[in-house]
Amino acid sequence: MLSPLAYIHPAARLAPGVTVEPFTTIYGDVEIGENTWIGPNVTIMDGARIGANCQIFPGAVIAGVPQDLKFAGEVTTAEIGDYTVLRECVTVNRGTVDKGRTVVGSHCLLQAYVHIAHDCLVGNHCVISNSTQMAGHVQVGDWAIIGGTSAIHQFTKIGAHAFIGGGSLVRSDVPPFVKAAREPLTYAGINSVGMSRRGFGEAQVHSMHELYRILYLSGLGMQEALARIEAEIAPSAERDLVLEFIQSAERGIIKGPGRRKSEESAD
């Protein structure tokens, strides 16, 4: 159903089954997948690419111009995957020349007042809680959960299956499978509950416990810890994901209990 009280540009491409409620504005360079519900008072601007079976709640603004002074009007997109829910007043800015797009994956939940800035890449099955503010160029892995009112520094990376406590200031990269909390943001164990809920077995959870025990609790320097992990932890998709993440962490990873900041860089 397309409300007669909504404005839909004639060039916009809406698949069958799309619902658009009153007082919503949809610009011309927009694509919306089948059976997506667009609530009232939503603004969907040029460059929006919204998947199927999504729900966009009142006040949301999708594909707004980036809040980046270097932006020069280049043609870019803001992409939302299938079955993703954007609650009230969520804002997702489109990309800049850096990546050309901002992406929120499929089966995600962005709660009220979340802001996703330009060139962010958010994976699938992520939950980003109320009022989280994400600066430009942030990357978030699949199944990550970010607690409410968190603020995430530009270019930061958050690993798959990570859990970040509410009210966090995320200034460094957060490795996969960990829980992070406190101020400054610190390793607080592995996300064993999340791993179990997502089908990881007891042996896989134990392996992550041992890996992060070596990394954060052994007293070793970063390079020594990584070498010991490679020697003592059996190769697996999870181990290799963690090692690759840490070795590519340009901002360094979050602190561990009692560790000096200078020890957290993989460089």
TrEMBL record:
GO MF, one example: acyl-[acyl-carrier-protein]-UDP-N-acetylglucosamine O-acyltransferase activity
Keyword DNA-binding attached: no
Keyword set, alphabetical order: Acyltransferase, Lipid A biosynthesis, Lipid biosynthesis, Lipid metabolism, Transferase
Keyword Transferase: yes
Domain UDP N-acetylglucosamine O-acyltransferase C-terminal, chain residue ranges per copy: 173-254
One Pfam short name: Hexapep
Entries under SUPFAM superfamilies matching the protein: Trimeric LpxA-like enzymes
Enzyme Commission identifier(s): 2.3.1.129
Native organism taxonomy: Bacteria, Pseudomonadati, Bacteroidota, Cytophagia, Cytophagales
UniProt protein name: Acyl-ACP--UDP-N-acetylglucosamine O-acyltransferase
Biological source species: Hymenobacter bucti
InterPro entries reported for this sequence: Acetyltransf_C, Acetyltransf_C_sf, Hexapep, Lipid_A_LpxA, Trimer_LpxA-like_sf
